[in-house]
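Issue: copy button drops trailing tokens. Both records pasted manually instead:
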Amino acid sequence: MTDSQDSVITPPQDETTSGPRRELVVGETRYTLLGTAHVSAESAADVRALIRSGEFDAVAIELCDSRHHSLMNPDALGEQDLFQIFRQGKAGMVAASLALGAFQQRVAEQSGIEPGAEMRAALEESRDADLPLLLIDRDVGITLKRIYHNVPWWQRFSLFSGLLGSVLSRQQVSAEEIERLKEGDVLESTFSEFAAESASLYDPLISERDRYMVLRLAEDAAPGRYRSVLVVIGAGHMKGMAEQLEQPLPEAPHPEREALEATPPPSKVWKALPWAITALVLTGFAIGFSRNTELGWQLVVEWFLINGVLSGAATLVALAHPLTVAATFVAAPLTSLNPTIGAGFVAAGVELWLRKPKVRDFSTLRHDVTELKGWWRNRVSRTLLVFLTATLGSAAGTWIAGFRIAGKLFGG
């Protein structure tokens, strides 16, 4: 990348845009950063006017491949194999994505403006003008994973329960939330109350993405490749990206960009923990039987009842089919002793077999999840709830039953 000495900032050439706009010339390329409001008809109009002006020969937008795909194909989830989602451990991420989509839909209903209109305008206008379209944002799934790994473990539950609670609430989206959306994006608005006070959250959510998007520009729209590039981003990213573009960037940005896409591997301790619990429980059974047969069977029965009842009862919360509840009751005590398969996977598999989602469920999914009862009414989202509740019930049952066994053996 060209050194910062070759970079200058020039003011906007006109006042035709309603939002903030900055122009930076790096080498032979002019980058025009257009700060948009994600809930604003004016921002969409700004994007259309600038692209139609003929000033630009490339357009870069604050979208990743998955968000671009969702924007172009709102029913994309219907093309996925739900069973594969559960097997690959992506159910939680899909549920979080649906919850974020529900927040967007609520904003659209209450403001009368569809969030992301300016991105859709950029897609349409760049296609009509036959301009290269560059997707420069980091994948939303990677950002959520990096947030998860960056915050202390004891904050994770409150963070994501707060996320789900806020997006599922049927309360009116406040004026303050709408204003935050006008300066950032859905992620920033949703996490705003945490991000302002938490560097561990702010870094992966905002500053890392500023850096990532500039690195993508350095790769896909390096100085000299295009004459003039329009960069459509949320207004909240303008300051950080402008500062990054003023500084020297690596000539080979790919390694640093890949580092910002990496997620820490699971801790060896956490990977070993399920196997350690299995070994301890089986050892407890062996000790019980070695003392007397009656104690051994008592421990086994309590293990099965505690695991089975808690997991089965948890699926009842999701209004699972009665056979799903029964299957979960039987499977949970066994899957808790086999770390290679979870009770949630079994429960979701049985629920899918008994209540296979219909075409209508996929077509109405994003609308259904905007209200709390819709999560239970739609077969797709209800199956996700079955998976999550069975998993949580089994985890609770494992720990409670484990302590119960330890108490019986060593508590006197």
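Record 2 (pasted manually too):
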Amino acid sequence: MLAMNYRGPYRVRADYKPDPVIEHPGDAIVRVLRSCICGSDLHLYHGMVPDTRVGHTFGHEFVGEVVDVGRDVRTLKAGDRVLVPFNLFCGSCFFCQRELFGNCHNTNPEATASGAIYGYSHTAGGYDGGQAEYVRVPMADVGPYPIPDDLHLDDAVLLTDALPTGYQAAEMGDIHEGDTVVIFGAGPIGIFAAKSAWLMGAGRVIVVDEVEYRLEFVKRYAQCEVVNFREVNDMAEHIKKMTDWMGADVCIDAVGGDAAGSIAQTLTGRLMKMQAGASTVLHWAINSVRKGGNVSIVGVYGPTFNAVPIGNVVNKGLTIRANQASVKRHLPRLIEHIREGRLNPKEIITHRVPLEEVADAYHIFSSKLDNCIKTVLIPPSAREVQAVNASALH
């Protein structure tokens, strides 16, 4: 099969790899119909995530068609179309029973540090991801979610991570009616967090980024205010000026360790790797939120330490919540929002690229070229399926 192949930082290519096979009676094999490049994939691409091994296939956002199942699989059969949450989970451990699917204790040998994630290095279990023609899906009775007939595949693929993560970012902020919410990052997660903040009762939503086309996009898509941090001397002071010197009620970090905006943080966190990524946005969020406010973190950082102003957290009485999204918990509500027209996820897709051109797709997305917001990869086998389906209609 054709698959994305990681060759080292800033080096990926499309290569032929062996087709995945059933390794456990609970497995399924899924033919990928859509996969995405996520902002989190850029942390791998930039060499920021430990134990990302040469030959690994990325891709934790994918949907597809079941082509084979193990003998113990009861809920799926060949031909079913499914969206696959980015987290692998068993459904029965202490954490899964509490719907903390991103913290499953049985799917990752490094479970004390992270849950399991498709295509996200061996710190997250070492499972190959969906930027390929086929993917092995373990615990197929638990994770995959049947795609409703009335749900567009482009909406479905964004339900595997980007939309639930943005939604959970807003949920973890514990937004109350009329709250001012500041979101750092105008990528897909930040865009969906901004849109979700309105659904949860926000009275004011402000998004911070440095890329003008992304700010214009989120301003239009989520009807929010925007700030270019390159035009601001002091981020915390600026947010306080915008909020009558109180600070925001809720701040959301939708950036993580690849954040720009501080030479010192970039040097220690991204170049020298003395921290688990640049903690620029963590500082901004902690210092911009009001006393007694909430900070929600969904941006990706490494498993080691970051230098953060913990004294400010204590003195201001802040609540900090962070986690990988428990995708499956959110799906019924998010599908309802899509059906009712309150959310239209596929509108953020700006690029559809053949899997054969995955190296160019990563370069465009990473370098923020061509007004790229969200990239969908289409494998050749998926194009063949679409061609057959189209011919059957005539």
